[in-house]
């Protein structure tokens, strides 16, 4: 069997097992998706997003523009495109207005709200501003007045923002703040300051299962919202990671329903959840073999993301270690072997002639999906045992 076909079969198998980890009546809603064309070359069109949502049973999603080349002035053109696409989606896509603080953010937000936007997206890194920038105060006040959510980038590439975010949530208790990417930029500090605050939420669009496990140990489960960050992330592995973590922690079905969609549906409707205590342990215990495999896969991840070959042989090291794991790591070696074979067959990434960069990226996204599924299984053996990978 070819490497590509084997990878497709494993990913299809993962889709089949995914819903077995969730209550049968679960409504899935994603708090973080994009549409359009980013200046880095990443793109996603309406038909592709809706098809992918259908494939994975996603019923609704918040959506906003990428960092588009024609974003000046004030994201007007990208916002208009997203508003139009959301209108075509039949209510499945809930648009957020993306703002640039240097180009009339209040005017653009009000214009978009009048056209159907139901929230705001802020990206401090891409638009080069700080969370405590005084120009944000009227933006937070506007969202607070409308009871619309504000999704704030809180991932890589930023300085710590814990104190500033906590102060914003205090000054604007009616502003619904969603911190993207599990707030990994300053997660420990942020979680310690905003745990139990009913207006602060964390989306789960991160690649590390440990990031989500740590959040669930320190904040209310009702403060977490499923998110995949498509097209950078993907529904399959993001949802598998979250569902597997919830199975690993053996949380009740109501909590599972809330995190993967119910809480976001409430926020969209203007309703906030009642918060309960954290459900995760502060510390975890994992076998040395599993941690060895994880260390090799974690080291391989930036090579995959940056379109480089496995010159170190990390996949071979991970496969050998996983093969020593016995029944507890059943299924993990097959995922790693398939990812390694597919990676080795990656086409050349070129412009103009030969294989285009887009085809190379599609190929490597499958590689990373397999690697991500393997990493999830390492940290969630209970889920892997219940529904084998």
TrEMBL record:
Keywords recorded for this protein, A-Z: Lyase
UniProt-listed InterPro entries: ACMSD, Amidohydro-rel, Metal_Hydrolase
Top-level lineage group: Bacteria
Gene3D superfamilies to which the protein is assigned, alphabetical: Metal-dependent hydrolases
Lyase is among the record's keywords: yes
Entry GO terms, CC: cytoplasm
A GO molecular-function descriptor: carboxy-lyase activity
One Pfam family it belongs to: Amidohydro_2
Domain Amidohydrolase-related residues, every copy: 30-262
GO biological process: secondary metabolic process
Protein's name according to its UniProt entry: Amidohydrolase-related domain-containing protein
